[in-house]
Amino acid sequence: MRILYQDDYLAAVDKPPGLLVHRTGLDAGETRFALQMLRDQLGRPVWPVHRLDKGTSGVLLFALDAGTARELAQAFEEGGAVHKTYQAIVRGWPADEGWIDHPLRRLPDDVRAARTEVQAAQTRFRTLARYALPVPTAGFAGTRCAGVELQPLTGRRHQLRRHLKHIAHPIIGDATHGKGPLNRALAAPLGLQRLWLHAARLELPAVGARAAVCIEAPLGEDWGRWEAWRVVGDPPGLR
To answer: HEC string of 67-136?
Structure first.
């Protein structure tokens, strides 16, 4: 695996889409897992500090000892100490920027608390690019999509995918919270079907003897497939 960062306490890898972080009964047919792969690659135990969905690519963090794992897990739980930035491709053209404040109910397979528990959840987004693909949908001759930057202010499960669905701009390739027919239709001109969600940057606070650190994972080559449909005249703030 491509190692993005490593010191005496941490190791971060660039997780490819389609790879599970660790073994789970929800996907019992899988035989490759990021945790075991990195353990074998480094020749030492590693502890996952957070999770990325199977379809999500980008920065995935592991601790190299149990104490660091506990400290960072607490920092992730507190929310404000760790800053995460994602990029995604969504259906439609969202506003140039916005704020999603929408509480989320725990998912049915989450055994950590009562399933009826509702948790506060906030996400900030910014539109980076707009695309128009020649794929007819909903009576229109083409399909609008957009590249967005996402910053979750809380860490709820599937938060970004559920929040984008809530504002009617689901992430392309999301089989659970998106639109299956649209996902399949767009896979043909793109030549690829995947969840278009990427963990681009992870900023960690200083903990104990470890200094603060910022870890980045560049977008993969597959993201360049969208450039053929970029709309001239990008929104303000495009970088």
So the answer is: HHHHHHHHHHHHCCCCEEEEEEEEECCCCCEEEEECCEECCCCCCCCCCCCEECCEEEEEEEEEEEECCC
Q: How far is CA 205 from CA 42, 60, 71, 77, 177, in A?
A: 24, 16, 11, 13, 32
Residues acting as catalytic residues = 53
149 DSSP 8-state letter: E
Rounded CA-CA distance 71/76 in Å is 9
Domain boundaries, the chain: 3-229
What pLDDT does 79 receive? 66
More confident residue, 80 or 43: 43
Which is nearest to 195 in space by CA: 166, 230, 220?
A: 220
Spatial neighbors of 155 by CB under 8 A, at least 6 apart, are: 50, 76, 77, 79, 84
Task: State pLDDT tens for residues 83-117.
Answer: 999 999 999 999 999 999 999 987 665 555 555 58
- Quick one: pLDDT band at residue 179, thresholds 50, 70, 90? confident
CA distances from 53 to 7, 21, 27, 185, 223 (A): 25, 8, 12, 23, 18
Class of 3-229 in CATH: alpha beta
Q: What is the pLDDT of residues 125-174, one digit of tens each?
A: 999 999 999 998 877 889 999 999 999 998 888 999 999 999 999 999 99
**C-alpha closest to that of 197 among 143, 159, 235:** 159
Neighbours of 168 (CB within 10 A): 10
Distances (CA, A) of 141 to 116, 147, 187: 42, 20, 17
